Amino acid sequence: MNIAVLYTKLTSYFMACMRHDVSKTGNVYHVYRYEPSNEAPFDLKSEKGIKIFNNGNENAKTLLSNLKKFNPDIIYVSGWTNKKYKIISKYFMKNNIPTILGMDNQWKGNIRQHLAGLMSPIVIKPYFSHIWIPGAPQYRFAKKLGFKDVNIFTGLYCAANNLFGKISQKKFNRQLLFVGRLVDHKGIKVFLNVLKSFINEDALSFKVHFVGNGPLSKEIPKHELITHSNFVNPDKLPLLMKDAGFLILPSLYEAWGVVIHEAVTAGLPIITTHQTGAASEFVVNNENGFIYNAHDKLELKKSIINSFNLSENQYLKMSSKSKQLSNLNSLDKWSSTLNDIIEKG
User: Fold this and answer.
1) What is the DSSP string of 162-226?
2) Which DSSP helix (H) or strand (E) runs through 297?
3) Alpha-carbon distance 206 to 245, whole Å?
4) With left for phi above 0 and alpha for psi between -120 and 50, is residue 49 left, alpha or beta?
């Protein structure tokens, strides 16, 4: 089968999903994305079964002509705001080719989302036959946009379980691991304030490892137990999670958070917020981690204290539960979902 993918910023985890599908089915992908910025520390390249094109300067007519030659059996579009991609999608939808909208917006019930639901018969539904979402936090929004249950699919974002699944936690390393951009919406300021309170009380008795870059990196406290790595290649991340303690994702808002799935697949217990989408699927409070309100510093501090009051046996039970929950999605399920859409049309 020929699969066309229209992206703005292609991600390493989506690449892993396509790579697995190629190995499993022999499908061929043509991926159109906007050229990565010069600030990007890595770039994704074409490989067997996956051809990547930079198309930021191409108009819709040229892109459509290229895709007609490719003759896709299905179109996947990341988001509904790109006018050029919508023109492409509408053409193929009229020609009875399944067109999938990828969406990760959680349902918030605000005015903007209600308007999107009202305008969907004009600005969304004429362009897309199916919608693919990460999970439960997006489901109600998909319904509000007018998609029927039979055309709504979950499991859009998936960790590379073939890599992270090889990692396990053999001991309780008293450490918090953060992986992601060091920006405000990730809850970094709240987390740093809590860390500083531990330092001021001379009570920082656990390690903290920040992995990622961003404007808030300069605010990380200087302390012998706190380390910062600007960047780690995605293929090095699984090993970084070996005996890594707890993953912490303190986001004020996180549409999903694939790093949560990656971490539980590696057997890491989690500290995260109710506002993090992936927590709804991969974290059970007090069973494989702790979930708190993103804006509550005291609740975060309590979660951290509770995590390091665990015995090693309790920690390893949490790790086992994370491994169990990680199986709720997999590369095989991702591939099966995509191919089911193609076959059923």
Assistant:
1) HHHTT----S---EEEEES--SGGGTHHHHHHHHHHHHHTT---SEEEEE--SGGGGGS---TTE
2) helix 297-308
3) 10
4) left
Question: At a CB cut-off of 8 Å and minimum separation 6, what does 118 contact?
Answer: none
Q: Which helix (H) or strand (E) holds 80?
A: none
Q: What is the pLDDT of residues 43-82, one digit of tens each?
A: 789 999 999 998 877 899 999 999 999 999 999 999 999 9
Above pLDDT 70, what percent of the chain? 98
Other C-beta atoms closer than 10 Å to the C-beta of 169 total 23
Global pTM reads 0.95
Q: For 240-272, write each residue's pLDDT tens digit.
A: 999 999 999 999 999 999 999 999 999 999 999
Per DSSP, which regions of the chain are E strands? 2-6, 28-33, 50-54, 74-78, 99-102, 130-132, 152-153, 175-179, 207-211, 226-229, 246-249, 270-273, 289-292
Q: Residue written as tokens 């510093």?
A: 297
Q: Cα torsion at 242, 244, 246, 249 (round to 10°)?
A: -90
The SS3 assignment for 241 reads coil
Cβ-based neighbour number of residue 171 at 10 Å? 10
Q: Domains (ranges, CATH) in the chain?
A: 2-158+330-344 (3.40.50.2000), 162-326 (3.40.50.2000)
Alpha carbon separation from 279 to 26, 40, 188, 196, 317 (Å, rounded): 33, 28, 18, 26, 18
For tokens 């920006």, the residue is 183
Q: How far apart are CA 291 and CA 289, in angstroms?
A: 7
**3-state DSSP assignment of residue 10:** coil
Amino acid at the residue 87? I
Mean pLDDT along residues 142-155: 98
Which one-letter amino acid corresponds to residue 232?
A: V
- The one-letter amino acid code at 31 reads V
**Percent of the chain residues topping a pLDDT of 90:** 92
Query: Do the beta carbons of residue 125 and residue 146 sit within 8 Å?
Result: yes
